[in-house]
Amino acid sequence: MKISPLYYHKTTSFVNRFPGFFRLFTAKSKIPQKHQNKLFFAGFFVAKCKMNWYNGNNQNRKVCAVMNCLEQKILTDGVVKEGNVLKVDSFLNHQMDITLMEEIGKEFYRRFQHKPINKILTIEASGIAIAFAVAQQFRVPLLFAKKSKSINIAGDTYVAEVESFTHKNRNTVIVSKQFLSEEDHVLIVDDFLANGCALQGLISIVDQAGGTVEGIGIAVEKGFQVGGQIIRNLGYQLESLAIVDAMDHKTGSITLRGVR
Questions:
Q1: Structural domain count, the chain
Q2: At what angle do helices 33-77 and 98-112 cross, to 10 degrees?
Q3: Would you state the pLDDT for residue 229?
Q4: For the domain that residue 204 is a member of, what is the CATH number?
Q5: pLDDT under 70 in the chain at which residues?
Q6: Which end of the chain, C or N, has fewer beta carbons within 10 A?
Q7: pLDDT of residue 163
Q8: Other C-beta atoms lying within 10 Å of the C-beta of residue 207
Q9: Distance of CA 55 to the CA centre of its chain
Q10: Rounded to an integer, what distance in angstroms lies between the CA atom of residue 129 and that of residue 81?
Q11: Model confidence pLDDT, tens digit, residues 30-53
């Protein structure tokens, strides 16, 4: 039985952490000494597999906890208004549940950590808090598109026109060319996805800069509207933590995808 030096070192460390158990095993066992080391290695391998299985399941449980927490908040605290408007201002985009925000940031990091992301992009104002939580996990700058130009933004800018589903108006959003370039690999983050206009505006701004959109993270997607389908058809990795399939302002009912 050939053992690599690295595997031997790890196994020896494992055995040294539990000397009492292995001394007891050796003292009580009638197995010849020459076979005992092989059993130690086999035992270590089995224990390691069990630890990996536990860690994997534990990670899945954490993911479910974040999803369930956000979904539960939507079902209990979300308010449906006429015109397919869902208010989540008690915990997401006016008053904010900071613990939930932190977990949302961790979840988006888990989903996109394999991408070479070096900048988070969102649009003012309600997307900023979520984007901050995500940027904190990636340890990269957060950049948000402004809806009006001020004296604080000097020089040339990238410009896009976006329509707000909630406010029923159109805005020209801008980003200073100083902060976005062809070297940037961008994760776009926002709180809501309805018709997809805001996302298309942000995608346009990244394209103007010559950068790369590595993915898009959305807290709440309205699955009964066309935005999600439009963005996915463009070929982007779109990750939504909660998807609303239906809602009724008369009854106040909200139906979430995958939640009964």
A1: 2
A2: 130
A3: 96
A4: 3.40.50.2020
A5: 1-67, 149-154, 165-169, 260
A6: C
A7: 77
A8: 13
A9: 19
A10: 23
A11: 556 555 555 555 454 444 544 554
